[in-house]
Q: What sequence folds into this?
């Protein structure tokens, strides 16, 4: 049978899809496990978490900024969307981090390899007959990463603000701190690390320039971003974990399973 | 230190072939290419293999060793156990000529489609001034030894022969990136990258970077920055409107 | 299997010339290294239709192995540099055996050739002012080598390759055909040059490696750019292509070679593990601060500064170390003596029992430079040792020893046009002789490729113009003879194995005509070569003609044997030690022998050597040297003023 894949006539007919002897399937399998678990967790929190996303002074990242008037008191600082919004307020903001990560150059590698099996691992033949890449709808939308990066910056600012607000006690008095404060700070830091190590950030800072020598400050920043950029995949996973940890902590407080240990 | 290793070497040509078994002596410090040469000298004098420098500098002895695209001269036998069977096949993305030798003319055709370096017309030889920091990014890509392992591993063409027509592969995407980042080049190759070289085919699964024997960060430093530069022009209205008012714009590439 | 592969060679046929693949060009360049590509660019720029024929793929030539840089007196790092200084260094390096005219042209034109590369897109390392950076190298008085890390040769070949592509793009825009004016015939080996009845060059004959089919190029001008002969030696930095093809082709066509006894053994090749023995360790390691030590930890090079150089090199480690930062007021370290001196010194240390565990000496950069700087300045050396020898050069010394690197000798040419004695034949780069005298300075090879590559392109164009359209015609019988010769290895069964013969040849040359030579050993070598020639006539190749490396080696062996015999005969004749020719039985340099070139020829009686006087240096060039330096090299009556 004529084929257009690895056994295309004229190429060396080896007869197997790959001769790799190592456990090449472990990595994609782990990615599937990790990402699927996160997505499941996220769906649960977005659709079934509308009563457990705020426990003063902490707000869950899935709901921040809470911009609908239906937001619970204390979490509704940015509310500007009227009561006509009937669904969970998480939907109003969750698309931003979702879009940012879906279009991220690292996550693209991760999901194209693990879910699409395109390819499942290097030099392991992919099962599909056709491949058109990111040239058509919807995958051409991956070019919008830039825009999600801009929005991601905004979100990181807001989450930093949330972490600052966490230096209050449940009554709104400043100068206090609990375990939740620490978790929100760590989470905000990891999100900054993920956001600023992004490839779009690298391009925006100075990557698009051809004369670094004429922009010494931007070049200096570029070298820093480039250094962090090498660890972008790491930050992608770490920040995913800190999101879950910080959010689950808020859930535990809001649902009354736990009381926040206060340091001062 | 010497031992006998078990090899399976693919032999045949475009009309067919198979893995053939060989038992062959291995000595300390040897690489896979040494073993292939020993096979030629002692067991199968007409075993076809392409090689030149045997020092990882020319990029001739590309093949697949236990399914992984590698330079035979840079794959040490000490990375395998003495019991392990070592399978050597030609690169599986290109048509095979004979045994381990493939027809890599695809790459030379794509190379011809890259608009060449175009310095400013009024700049005399000897007057070129470029800062080291400005040439370093392009220098990284010029480390390329054209072994074509990145092309071999790229699933866009490895698993989809018809894509060869509209996609040039990682080697030539970094060539485009190299020229686009050249501090004295005057041509804008971003549209060419998308339209003639199929930049959008790449889904950045990074196998090219994994196999590069020169350690070039093909994806992170070449293809992604090129994609971002294309976004600057095509998908970022704020930036592209802004750039209309900026000086020193490159002109579009001439047809090649 | 189908096609040619299915049919073993039919033993009775001769080639029907009418069925041959034939191509007609103005210029055929054999070899696609730096010299060949530069020549092709020039020939095409002169409007000549040009074919480039090469044994390997386009862009894989041996030039990629060059590491250090291109010597050109641009004066970017030290403004005192100029062509006169470069000329002096070249002549000193070659122990005044050089063709002074070639050395002069090279020194004068190298800067332009380097700058030209930038217009083709080359990206050299830069000085703080943005000019091309230049580094120190053995035998060069000032930092002079334009470089890109330690992969300058790769940059050179890629730049020229891409320039050719850009010319093809121009041709495509003009004619609709990329290959209308310049075409690369890759993996195609030439086995004979073809002449017309008058003895003028008419083309070349060879075979496609891929299919084994024969091909004839008809062209009035043939430029040889085939590189060197290192594969006749066991320990060599050269690739498989370096089988002396051009040297042999030229001599078989009536051309001559000179200086074949001068072979450069690069002082620093890898010595361990055995499979990489001979692979080059760039001289930049020493230029950037690396030092040589013996097993006692001593920097032994201070004991080996020869009299002719004693005023130019440091006498103490302190002074030598100061030189790296203050070259104005200190003399350079003796590690940077010309290559022949360093190679001999290492050889002596090892023989005296002060070598490293694997029979070399230590080259240490780890205690001299920070790890970061080493990785930056010597990336491919770092990589090479890490990958192939498991040695981290930022933490431990390298083990190095001499390796056969370059043949100074080559086809005798006219300095200005690179024309050989056969009309229409040109030779450039390593296959040409004269430029480097008895010893080549590091960095002078890449400049040589560019300067004389361009000159040969011009020379060939000029030669064709003078022919005025009357192109020489190939004689068909010669083609038949060439085809029969190429197929001979298939004829016999049960004959000699080409791989075995090759190994024996390499062992012979390495042991008996190597870095240190004596009359008795070379006489023995000639005897063995004679026997090998007889056995080579009886080689048998298995399999068929399609990409058959055994067959290719069998054909290359003819060239290696011819060239090896030239080397051995010339070396036996020259009774002195000079540059790349060291005689244990004649350890001194002789001013009388300096006046003599040994010219090698091949005719029906085989290889022969003749003496030929060296052309005396032009007085204005002679004036560039101090008389007391000239006295070390020249006879009294050659000195300015006729001696006094």
A:
């Amino acid at each position: 049978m004529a084929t257009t894949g690895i056994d295309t006539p004229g190429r060396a007919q080896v007869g197997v899809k790959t001769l790799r002897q190592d456990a090449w399937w472990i990595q994609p399998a782990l990615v599937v496990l990790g990402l699927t678990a996160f997505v499941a967790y996220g769906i649960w929190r977005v659709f079934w978490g509308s009563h457990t996303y705020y426990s003063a002074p902490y707000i869950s990242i899935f709901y921040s900024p809470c911009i609908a008037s239906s937001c619970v008191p204390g979490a509704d600082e940015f509310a500007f969307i009227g009561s006509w919004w009937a669904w969970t307020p998480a939907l109003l903001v969750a698309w931003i981090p979702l879009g940012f990560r879906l279009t991220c150059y690292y996550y693209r590698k991760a999901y194209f390899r693990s879910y699409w099996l395109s390819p499942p691992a290097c030099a392991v033949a992919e099962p599909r007959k056709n491949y058109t890449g990111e040239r058509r709808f919807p995958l051409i939308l991956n070019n919008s990463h830039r825009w999600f990066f801009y929005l991601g910056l905004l979100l990181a600012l807001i989450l930093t603000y949330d972490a600052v607000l966490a230096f209050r006690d449940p009554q709104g008095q400043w100068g206090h701190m609990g375990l939740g404060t620490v978790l929100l700070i760590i989470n905000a830091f990891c999100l900054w690390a993920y956001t600023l190590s992004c490839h779009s950030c690298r391009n925006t800072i100075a990557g698009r320039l051809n004369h670094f020598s004429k922009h010494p400050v931007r070049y200096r920043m570029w070298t820093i971003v480039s250094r962090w950029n090498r660890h972008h995949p790491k930050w992608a996973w770490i920040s995913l974990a800190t999101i879950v940890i910080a959010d689950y902590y808020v859930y535990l407080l809001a649902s009354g399973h736990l009381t926040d240990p206060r340091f001062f | 230190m010497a031992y006998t290793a078990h090899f399976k070497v693919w032999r045949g040509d475009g009309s067919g072939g198979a893995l053939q078994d060989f038992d062959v002596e291995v000595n300390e410090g040897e690489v896979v290419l040494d073993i292939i040469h020993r096979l030629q000298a002692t067991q199968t004098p007409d075993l076809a293999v392409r090689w030149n420098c045997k020092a990882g500098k020319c990029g001739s002895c590309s093949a697949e060793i236990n399914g992984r695209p590698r330079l035979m001269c840079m794959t040490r036998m000490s990375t395998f156990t003495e019991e392990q069977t070592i399978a050597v096949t030609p690169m599986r993305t290109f048509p095979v000529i004979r045994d381990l030798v493939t027809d890599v003319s695809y790459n030379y055709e794509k190379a011809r489609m890259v608009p060449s370096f175009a310095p400013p017309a009024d700049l005399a030889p000897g007057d070129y001034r470029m800062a080291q920091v400005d040439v370093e990014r392009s220098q990284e890509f010029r480390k390329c030894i054209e072994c074509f392992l990145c092309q071999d591993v790229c699933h866009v063409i490895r698993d989809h022969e018809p894509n060869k027509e509209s996609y040039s592969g990682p080697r030539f995407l970094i060539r485009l990136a190299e020229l686009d980042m050249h501090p004295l080049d005057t041509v804008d190759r971003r549209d060419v990258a998308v339209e003639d070289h199929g930049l959008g085919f790449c889904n950045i699964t990074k196998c090219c970077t994994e196999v590069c024997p020169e350690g070039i960060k093909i994806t992170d430093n070449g293809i992604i920055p090129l994609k971002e530069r294309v976004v600057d022009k095509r998908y970022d209205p704020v930036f592209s409107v802004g750039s209309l008012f900026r000086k020193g714009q490159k002109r579009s590439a001439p047809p090649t | 299997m189908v096609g040619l592969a299915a049919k073993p060679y039919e033993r009775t046929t001769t080639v029907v010339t009418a069925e041959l693949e034939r191509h007609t060009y103005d210029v055929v360049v054999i070899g696609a290294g730096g010299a060949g590509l530069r020549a092709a660019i020039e020939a095409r720029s002169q409007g000549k239709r040009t074919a480039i024929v090469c044994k390997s793929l386009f862009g894989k030539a041996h030039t990629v192995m060059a590491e250090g840089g291109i010597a050109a007196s641009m004066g970017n790092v030290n403004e005192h540099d100029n062509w006169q200084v470069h000329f002096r260094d070249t002549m000193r390096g070659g122990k005044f055996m050089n063709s002074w005219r070639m050395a002069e042209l090279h020194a004068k034109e190298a800067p332009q050739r380097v700058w030209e590369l930038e217009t083709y897109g080359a990206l050299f390392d830069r000085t703080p002012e943005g000019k091309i950076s230049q580094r120190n190298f053995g035998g060069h008085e000032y930092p002079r080598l334009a470089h890109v890390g330690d992969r300058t040769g790769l940059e050179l070949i890629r730049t020229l390759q891409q320039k050719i592509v850009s010319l093809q793009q121009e041709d495509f825009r003009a004619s609709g055909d990329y290959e209308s004016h310049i075409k690369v015939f890759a993996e195609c080996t030439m086995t004979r040059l073809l002449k017309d009845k008058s003895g003028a060059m008419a083309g070349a004959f060879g075979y496609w490696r891929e299919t084994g089919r024969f091909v004839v190029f008809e062209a009035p001008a043939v430029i040889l750019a085939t590189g060197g002969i290192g594969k006749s030696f066991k320990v060599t930095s050269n690739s498989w292509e370096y089988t002396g093809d051009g040297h042999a082709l030229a001599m078989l066509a009536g051309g001559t070679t000179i200086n074949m006894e001068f072979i450069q053994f690069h002082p620093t090749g890898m010595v361990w593990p055995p499979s990489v023995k001979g692979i080059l360790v760039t001289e930049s390691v020493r230029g950037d601060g690396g030092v040589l030590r013996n097993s006692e930890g001593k920097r032994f090079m201070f004991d080996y500064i020869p009299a002719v150089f004693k005023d130019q090199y440091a006498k103490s480690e302190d002074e030598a170390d100061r030189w790296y930062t203050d070259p104005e007021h200190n003399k350079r370290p003796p590690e940077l003596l010309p290559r022949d001196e360093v190679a001999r010194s290492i050889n002596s240390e090892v023989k005296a029992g002060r070598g490293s565990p694997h029979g070399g000496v230590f080259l240490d950069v780890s205690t001299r430079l920070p790890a970061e700087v080493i990785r930056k300045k010597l990336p491919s050396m770092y990589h090479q040792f890490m990958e192939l020898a498991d040695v981290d050069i930022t933490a431990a010394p390298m083990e190095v020893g001499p390796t056969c690197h370059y043949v100074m000798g080559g086809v005798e040419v006219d300095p200005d046009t690179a024309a050989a004695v056969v009309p229409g034949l040109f030779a450039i780069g390593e296959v040409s002789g004269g430029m480097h005298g008895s010893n080549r300075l590091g960095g002078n090879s890449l400049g040589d490729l560019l300067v004389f590559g361009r000159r040969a392109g011009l020379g060939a164009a000029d030669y064709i113009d003078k022919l005025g359209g009357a192109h020489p015609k190939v004689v068909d019988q010669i083609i038949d003879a060439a085809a029969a010769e190429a197929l001979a290895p298939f004829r016999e069964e049960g004959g000699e194995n080409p791989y075995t013969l090759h190994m024996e040849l390499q062992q012979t040359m390495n042991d008996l005509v190597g870095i240190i030579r004596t009359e008795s050993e070379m006489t023995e070598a000639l005897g063995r070569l004679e026997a090998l020639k007889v056995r080579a006539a009886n080689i048998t190749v298995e399999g068929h003609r399609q990409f058959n490396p055994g067959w290719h080696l069998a054909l290359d062996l003819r060239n290696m044997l011819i060239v090896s015999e030239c080397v051995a005969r010339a070396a036996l004749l020259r009774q002195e030690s000079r540059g790349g020719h060291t005689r244990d039985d004649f350890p001194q340099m002789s001013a009388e022998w300096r006046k003599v070139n040994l010219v090698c020829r091949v005719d029906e009686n085989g290889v022969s050597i003749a003496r030929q006087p060296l052309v005396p240096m032009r007085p204005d060039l002679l004036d560039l040297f101090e008389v007391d330096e000239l006295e070390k090299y020249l006879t009294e009556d050659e000195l300015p003023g006729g001696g006094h």
Notes: The mean pLDDT of chain C is 93. The CA atoms of residues 120 and 628 of chain C lie 44 Å apart.
